Amino acid sequence: MTVRVVDSADVSPDATIGDGSSVWHLAQVREGAVLGRNCIVGRGAYVGTGVRMGDNCKLQNYALVYEPAVLEDGVFVGPAVVFTNDHYPRSVAPDGSLKRGEDWEAVGVHCREGASIGARAVCVAPVTIGRWALVAAGSVVTKDVPDFALVAGVPARRVRWVGRAGVPLEQTGPDEWTCPQTGATYRQDNDTLTEVSA
Questions:
Q1: What letter does residue 118 receive in the DSSP assignment?
Q2: What is the DSSP-derived secondary structure letter of residue 127?
Q3: What percent of the chain has pLDDT over 90?
Q4: Spatial separation of the C-alpha atoms in residues 126 and 87, rounded to whole Å
Q5: Contact, 48 vs 41, CB < 8 A?
Q6: If phi over 0 gives left and psi between -120 and 50 gives alpha, with beta otherwise, what is residue 20?
Q7: This prediction's pTM
Q8: Helices vs. strands in the chain: H and E counts, helices first
Q9: Phi-psi bin for 125: left (phi > 0), alpha (psi -120 to 50), beta?
Q10: Residue 102, helix vs strand vs coil
Q11: What is the mean pLDDT of residues 74-97?
């Protein structure tokens, strides 16, 4: 396997790009970023300094992943998604002087295994997107998202449960949910869903 970086991409020599990964036109991967195997960084996407991505992640066109974001294996980030990294952003200090990198403490978005973030969603750090969760397009995530939750809206709230296949689960018992595509079953305990069988 090899790494593919097109000529118009800007990849720091201090970034680590895993085997089989591709970085497409006009994308930027900053110093210290670590991408796992078989990742795709789409046109115009931005991967900030020190961002960590696992294997088989996809950043679609113009996604902006600011440090110190962490994407575990199999995370999908849709077109024009933004991960923020500042609680209280300002260009200048109260005295009017330009703020520098050392003037603030970056906070990040953590996407757990298999999570998917829909087009133009905004994840306001610090938040964790749970395992195999799905953030609907255009949502604004301001608090942690549970595993297997489908969240939507501004601010994002859980509207359904989804399984590993990404399709909404069907309720098959008082606390039991089943994936119509794979047949896998899940059990709900209040606001937590766990896999019974996969």
A1: -
A2: E
A3: 91
A4: 8
A5: no
A6: left
A7: 0.95
A8: 0, 26
A9: beta
A10: helix
A11: 94
